[in-house]
Design brief:
- The chain is of the alpha+beta class.
- It has a domain at 73-181.
- Helices cover 23% and strands 9% of the residues.
- The chain has four helices and four strands, in the order ααααββββ.
- The chain has a four-stranded mixed beta sheet with strand order 1-2-3-4, with no helix packed on it.
- Strand 3 (172-175) and strand 4 form a beta hairpin.
- It is globular and about 45 Å long.
């Protein structure tokens, strides 16, 4: 366990040194994680047909990673590996298991990280950073031990459950522990023979 902490701290320290130019002030860190986005689809990695000017600018002004891989082939375990720095063989989340299978009090969300999980957002908070995550979480429902606010994020806004994230038009998203209704007529992500009525 101690070697895992050292590995995560080393990676954060190396990242901060590489991006800050050894500046006295803390560096802003923006980590963009996109499901199903290949490295070759961005201009900063050589793409010439798809225009990605804003991401290209972030790459020019920051750090561009050139040797990397996903820690797992599916969503939740890949995020678990990223958040904890653990190899998949040691990670506690190894599949996209629904939380309700082990915790019937939850109706949405995936199996949660345990409260003892050491995540890099927790370490950033301890170093004085304000942290936020926007998008898809999938490492524990709101109110569980894997709740993003219990795993190092001051602010979370987005899809807590990756099954809900299969829709571009869900009924709601989460802002920390508040469900925000965004669509009166949601469209499920896996609807068969769906007819959308346009008025």
């Amino acid at each position: 366990m101690a070697s895992m902490y050292r590995t995560i701290l080393f990676l954060i320290a190396a990242f901060l040194c590489a991006t800050s130019g050894f500046a006295a002030e803390p560096t802003n860190i923006v980590l963009i994680v996109a499901d199903d986005l290949g490295w070759g689809e961005l201009g900063c990695y050589g793409q010439e047909k798809i225009r990605t000017p804003h991401i290209d600018q972030l790459a020019r002004e920051g750090t561009r990673f050139t040797q990397f891989y996903s820690g797992a082939p599916v969503c939740a375990p890949a995020r678990c590996v990223l958040m904890t720095g653990l190899h998949l063989g040691h990670a506690e989340v190894r599949g996209n298991r629904q939380a309700k299978l082990a915790f019937p009090e939850f109706t949405e969300g995936q199996y949660p990280l345990q409260p003892t999980a050491v995540t890099f957002p927790k370490l950033l908070q301890q170093a004085g950073y304000a942290t936020g995550a926007m998008g898809k979480w999938g490492l524990g429902p709101v109110g569980s031990t894997g709740d993003p606010n219990k795993q190092g994020f001051d602010l979370f806004f987005g899809y807590n459950c990756q099954a809900v994230a299969h829709s571009f038009y869900p009924a709601s998203l989460w802002r920390n522990d508040e469900r925000i209704e965004i669509n009166q007529n949601p469209i499920p992500g896996h609807a068969n023979n769906l007819t959308v009525k346009c008025e």
